[in-house]
Amino acid sequence: xxxxxxxxxxxxxxxxxxxxxxxxxxxxxxxxxxxxxxxxxxxxxxxxxxxxxxxxxxxxxxxxxxxxxxxxxxxxxxxxxxxxxxxxxxxxxxxxxxxxxxxxxxxxxxxxxxxxxxxxxxxxxxxxxxxxxxxxxxxxxxxxxxxxxxxxxxxxxxxxxxxxxxxxxxxxxxxxx
Length: 177
Prior knowledge:
Blueprint: H1 3-6, E1 9-10, E2 16-20, E3 23-28, E4 31-36, E5 41-46, E6 49-54, H2 59-80, E7 83-90, E8 95-99, E9 102-106, E10 113-115, E11 121-124, E12 130-135, H3 138-149, E13 161-164
Antiparallel strand pairs: 1-6, 2-3, 3-4, 5-6, 7-12, 7-13, 8-9, 9-10, 11-12
C-alpha cells in the first residue's frame, strides 16, 4: 500500500481542477498546468479534493499510485506559490547579472557565459553573487538551476563554483610536502 498515494490532495482556495480521462488540468493565480497519468491509476475529483486510486494490485499500479499523487500535489503547489531554487556564486571574480532576458555569468573563463532563460521560467540576480530561478513547473525550475550550476560546479579543494544555497561541499585537504 502506498502511504503517499492514500492521502488526498487538498486544492487551496482560488485553484480549480478539471479531470478528463487520465488528464488533470489545474488552474490557479500563477497559471495553468496539466498532467497525464498512466493507465494503471484513476484520478477522482471530489469538490476541492483530488484522490488517486490504483486500478489493480500489480507492482506497476502501486508504483504509479504514489508518483501520480505527488505530481498532482506539485501541480497545485506550482499554480499557487510556485517553485524556487537559489544559487550562490563562490569565487574571486565570479559574478552574475541580468542582460535583458538573458543571464550573464562571469566565471573565470576567457569569455562571459550568456545563459538563455527558457519560457515559463524567471531568473533574477538580486546580488552579484546570487541567482534565483522561479517558475510553476518544479521539474523545469530544477533543470534550469542544474544547467546554470553545470557551468562551474563546486570543486572540493577551495569550494569555488556555483552551488545551491545551503549546499554543503565536502572539502578535501590539499597536497602535503
